[in-house]
Design brief:
This is O-antigen repeat unit transporter Wzx. Belongs to the polysaccharide synthase family. Keywords: Cell membrane, Membrane, Transmembrane, Transmembrane helix. This protein is mainly alpha-helical. The chain folds into two domains: 234 residues, no CATH class; 236 residues, no CATH class. Helix content is 88%, strand content 0%. The chain is built from 21 helices and no strands. Helix 12 packs parallel to helix 18, helix 13 crosses helix 14 and helix 16 runs antiparallel to helix 17. 45% of the residues are buried.
Length: 473
C-alpha cells in the first residue's frame, strides 16, 4: 500500500513539473507571438484546429489508453499498435491533402488550403511517438517526459519567434507546431530506446479494439465538439473574431488542461492499481477532487475577474476583446478537472460503453446550446458554454458515483466551500485594487487574491493544506 502511495506522490510530482514548466514556456512563447502576429493569424490556425484534432484522435483510436490500462504488454503488442497508428496517419494525411481546397472554400479563405496541407504533417509525425509515450506512462516515467516536452517547447518557440519577427505571419505558427512535434518524436525515440518489430498481431488487435473503439468514438465526439466553436465562428464571423475567441479559449484552457493532464494521467495509472479496493478507491477519488478544487478554483476565478487588465498588459490593447471572452470562459473551465477525474473512473474499469453514453448526451446539450446562442454573438456562445459545463459536471458523475458508491451531493459538499472562499478572496482582492485604482496593482490582483485565499484557509481548514503538502512532500 505504501508503495502505491509513493508511486502516486512521485507521479504527481514529475507529472506536475512536466506540465507546469512546459506550459509556462508555452505561455511565454504564446504571449510573444501574440504581440507580433495579432488576432488574424491565430484565427486562421483556429479554423483548422478541428481537422488536426480529429485526425490525431483517429490515429490514436484509443489504443494508447488500452496499452496503459493493460499495464503489461509484449513487444509484439506494442509493435502492432505502432504500425496501426502509422498506417492510419498516412491514410488520413492523404484525405486531408485532397480535401484542403474544399475546406478553404468552406471558410472562404484561400490561404487555408496550403496551410492545412503543411500543418497536417503533424498527424504523421505525432503518430510515430504514441506508443513511446504510452510506454513511459506505464512506467510512470514522467521525468523523461518532462525533459522531452521542455526541450521541444523551447526549441520550437525560438524558431517561431525568429520567423514571426521576420515577417512569416501565420506560417510562424505552422512551423512552431511542426518543429515541436519533430523534436518531441526524435527525443521519445532517443530516451525510450524502443523500436517496433515488423509484425502485426491480429488477434491482439481485435481484442484491444473491442475496448478502444468505444473510447475512440467518445474521444472523437469530445474532440469535434471541443472545436466546433471555431468551426461555427469561422464560418459566421471573420478570422479576427476567431482569433479573439481562440486566444481566449487557449488562455483559459491552459491552466485547466495543465492541471487535468497532471492529475488524469497519474490517477488513471494509480486508480487502475487500487480499483479492486472500492473503499480505498472512493477515498482517494474524493481526496483528489478536494485537492483539485482547492488548487484550481481560486486561480481560475481570479483570472476571470482580472482578465481585462492582465490581457492588455501582457499582449496589448489589440487583444482587449479577447479579455471579455476570457472573463466568461473561465467559469466554463473552472470545473474541467472535476470532469476529467470523474470520467477517469469509467476508463479505469473499462466501461468505455458508459463513457460513450455520457459523451453522446453531453454533445446533444452542446449542440442545443450552440444553435440557441450563435445568432446573438460570441459572448452569448461563451455563456452557453458555461451553462453546458455546469450541467456536464452532474452528467459526468452519474455512472462514476454508482461504481464507487458515492453521490453528487457528496461532491457538492466537497467543492462548494472552496468555490465560495475562492469567490470571496477574488472579490476582496478586486475591491482592494479598485481602491488604489492603479494599473500595476491590478496586474498583481491574482497574487493578492491567492494570498487572501490561502490565509483564510490557514485559519479555517488547515487539514487540506497539510494534505497537499503531504502529496508533494
Amino acid at each position: 500500500m505504501e508503495k502505491n502511495s509513493d508511486k502516486l506522490r512521485t507521479g504527481v510530482r514529475w507529472s506536475a513539473i512536466e506540465r507546469i514548466i512546459t506550459q509556462i514556456a508555452q505561455l511565454g512563447i504564446l504571449l510573444i507571438l501574440s504581440r507580433i502576429l495579432g488576432p488574424k493569424a491565430y484565427g486562421l490556425i483556429g479554423m483548422l484546429t478541428i481537422f488536426i484534432a480529429i485526425s490525431q484522435t483517429l490515429v490514436d483510436s484509443g489504443f494508447s489508453s488500452a496499452l496503459i490500462r493493460r499495464n503489461k504488454n509484449s513487444q509484439k503488442q506494442y509493435s502492432t499498435i505502432f504500425w496501426f497508428n502509422l498506417i492510419v496517419s498516412l491514410l488520413i494525411y492523404a484525405v486531408i491533402f485532397f480535401m484542403s481546397p474544399h475546406i478553404s472554400a468552406f471558410y472562404r479563405e484561400k490561404e487555408l488550403s496550403d496551410i492545412l496541407r503543411v500543418l497536417s504533417l503533424l498527424v504523421i509525425i505525432n503518430a510515430l511517438s504514441i506508443v513511446h509515450r504510452a510506454r513511459l506512462t506505464i512506467m510512470m516515467d514522467f521525468k523523461t517526459q518532462t525533459k522531452i516536452s521542455l526541450i521541444a517547447v523551447l526549441g520550437s518557440g525560438v524558431v517561431s519567434v525568429i520567423l514571426a519577427k521576420n515577417g512569416w505571419g501565420v506560417w510562424a505558427l505552422v512551423v512552431n507546431n511542426l518543429v515541436f512535434a519533430t523534436i518531441s518524436t526524435f527525443l521519445y525515440f532517443w530516451f525510450c530506446k524502443w523500436l517496433p518489430d515488423f509484425i502485426f498481431q491480429l488477434k491482439f488487435f481485435k481484442v484491444t479494439a473491442a475496448f478502444s473503439v468505444k473510447l475512440m468514438i467518445a474521444s472523437l465526439l469530445n474532440t469535434f465538439f471541443d472545436n466546433i466553436y471555431q468551426l461555427v465562428i469561422g464560418k459566421v464571423f471573420y478570422p479576427t473574431q476567431v482569433g479573439y475567441f481562440t486566444q481566449a479559449k487557449n488562455l483559459t484552457l491552459l491552466p485547466a488542461n495543465t492541471y487535468s493532464a497532471i492529475i488524469q494521467r497519474v490517477t488513471y495509472r494509480y486508480f487502475s492499481e487500487i480499483k479492486n479496493d472500492r473503499v480505498r478507491l472512493r477515498q482517494k477519488y474524493e481526496e483528489v477532487m478536494r485537492i483539485s478544487a482547492f488548487i484550481f478554483f481560486p486561480l481560475t476565478i481570479s483570472f476571470s475577474i482580472f482578465s481585462n487588465n492582465i490581457i492588455v498588459f501582457l499582449i496589448g490593447k489589440a487583444w482587449e476583446e479577447a479579455a471579455k471572452y476570457i472573463s466568461i470562459l473561465s467559469w466554463c473551465y473552472v470545473l474541467y478537472p472535476i470532469h476529467a477525474i470523474s470520467l477517469n473512473i469509467l476508463n479505469v474499469f473499462g466501461r468505455s460503453d458508459l463513457f460513450l453514453k455520457v459523451e453522446i448526451i453531453k454533445k446533444i446539450i452542446i449542440t442545443v446550446c450552440l444553435i440557441t446562442t450563435y445568432k446573438y454573438g460570441i459572448s452569448a456562445i461563451c455563456m452557453g458554454m458555461v451553462f453546458y459545463s455546469l450541467l456536464a459536471t452532474y452528467i459526468n458523475t452519474i455512472h462514476t458515483n454508482r461504481i464507487i458508491k458515492t453521490n453528487f451531493i457528496a461532491l457538492i459538499r466537497i467543492i462548494s466551500p472552496i468555490a465560495f472562499i475562492s469567490m470571496l478572496s477574488a472579490t476582496i482582492s478586486f475591491v482592494i485594487c479598485k481602491f488604489f485604482d492603479n494599473n500595476i496593482i491590478y496586474i498583481f490582483g491574482i497574487m493578492i487574491s491567492l494570498i487572501i485565499y490561502y490565509l483564510i484557509y490557514y485559519f479555517v481548514d488547515r487539514k487540506i493544506v497539510l494534505t497537499i503538502w503531504k502529496v508533494n512532500k
